[in-house]
Known about the structure:
Low-confidence stretches: none
Distance between the termini: 51 Å
Number of helices: 10
Radius of gyration: 19 Å
Helix content: 25-40%
Strand order of the largest sheet: 4-5-10-6-7
Number of strands: 16
CATH architecture of the largest domain: 2-Layer Sandwich
Largest sheet: 5 strands, antiparallel
Number of domains: 3
Strand content: 25-35%
Order of helices and strands: EHEHEEEHHHHHEEEEEEEEEHEHHE
CATH class of the largest domain: Alpha Beta
Mean pLDDT: 92
Amino acid sequence: MKAAAFEHQGAADVQEALRLLAAGGGRAKLIAGGQSLGPMLNLRLSRPQVLVDLANLAGLTSVEVQGQELVLGARLTHASIEDGRHPALAAHPMRQVAAGIAYRAIRNKGTLGGSLAHADPAADWVLALVVMGAVLRLQSPHGVRERPLEGFMQAAYTTELAQDELITAVRVPAMAQGRWGYYKFCRKPGEFADASAAVCQVAPGAPWRLALGALDGPPLLLAALAQELGEPGTATLALSRLREAVAAALPERDPIDHQLHAVCLARALEQAGWPARTA
């Protein structure tokens, strides 16, 4: 199939993009790398009347250090993060995540903000940045607002992004002394994950955050299990305890899904320095 007819308009800067988006009256859609929206257009799962192209938009590709945080432009490609082109990202765990996204051809074009706005439940950034406690910077004709990524995704491919609003930046912890792990199961490299998990402690002494991904909707934070990691004397967690926590969090899933997510969680914890006992 091919896409239904639409009008293509390129934006030179953020203000023009917002103007074009608002003029679309709810029938306009943004496109950056197009690695997710392109196939949806061809399958006619998305039928915008106007496509506002951000490919040549000036800006939104910077990486700024602000104290213990990094501010990442929403048009950063996965490949630019993977390659560590920006010194502030050279040793950041986001490089590990970026390197595992689909195929290199897709990483060359796909963008950070586009992935978060698309909100595929199996997407890597949706899970990885939620567990890091990332904050989105959103801009509309009415001004700029910031909100945590947690809760931004409401369901599969559904976010609270307003129809006249775009993501301009993402704030993430610098993770200079943090601990981190991320693992996903795919049938073969490049495919969507069947199960995934991420764990993060942004700095020594900070609370742990654990989450499961590749679900039917937003990532699921495991608050009780994360609290156990912070308890004195906890050196490891048994794999059986992880399965128990996953089963309690996903009662509608079958035992195979529980096992896949529990093993993803165990391997993510191992990367973060918390090896799971097999008992």
